[in-house]
Amino acid sequence: MRLIMNTLKKQHKLLSILCKQINPILVSSITNKPIDNYNYACSFDNLCKQLNCTEVELYALSSRLIEEKEISFYDVNFKGYIAHDKANSSLLSNKYLKEYYNILWNTIKNWIQTLIPVLSLIAVITIAQNKNYIEQDEVEKLKESVAYLSKNMKVIENNVLKLKDEKNSFIAKKDSIK
Q1: Which of 24, 41, 46, 120 is the most buried (most CB within 10 A)?
Q2: Residue 83 · residue 22 · CB < 8 Å
Q3: Phi-psi sector, 44: left (phi>0), alpha (psi -120 to 50), beta
Q4: What is the DSSP letter of 40?
């Protein structure tokens, strides 16, 4: 994917370099002065230097441009490429940059479409665990309350038993005094 995207950017740059060379040709066609293509073609070495690539990579970059009849080989005084009018149209319409950004956008869109359900699932699991934790926490608090109440109930029962014993002993003393 990244290779394709880098290729598209370099193809745009290649067109840009070659179209800088073609502008004088367009001017010449308006002024009807003869031109020497030698001045408007660009050598493989120069293109490789400007694109920071090898000749093999340059051939790979240029293959689609040649297919689209935007550029062609130039082999008069040196070997290189020369741009055609169609190259200028492609450059001005940002044909290859649009394709690059379209691929980039689709890649981002696909990642987002994958991430949203995953993040939603994580959120649901987190909420469920928190709810479960809260419920467990509440159950623990209720158990502690029940334990506290049962302990207090035993204390109260013991106090009631003591009071009954005291009452019985008081009544027994009272009866013995009579």
Answers
A1: 41
A2: yes
A3: alpha
A4: T
If phi over 0 gives left and psi between -120 and 50 gives alpha, with beta otherwise, what is residue 130? alpha
Closest CA to 76 of 40, 45, 37, 49: 37
pTM (global) more than 0.70: no
First to last CA, the chain: 111
Alpha-carbon gap, residue 18 to 112, rounded angstroms: 38
Integer Cα distance of 20 and 13 in angstroms: 11
For residue 77, give both structure tokens: 């005084």
Is 171 in a helix, a strand, or coil? helix
- C-alpha separations of 123 from 1, 115, 129, 134, 176 in Å: 31, 12, 10, 16, 78
pLDDT in tens, 55-89: 899 999 999 999 999 999 888 888 899 888 888 88
Residue labelled with tokens 């493989």: 44
- Residue 49 predicted with pLDDT over 90: yes
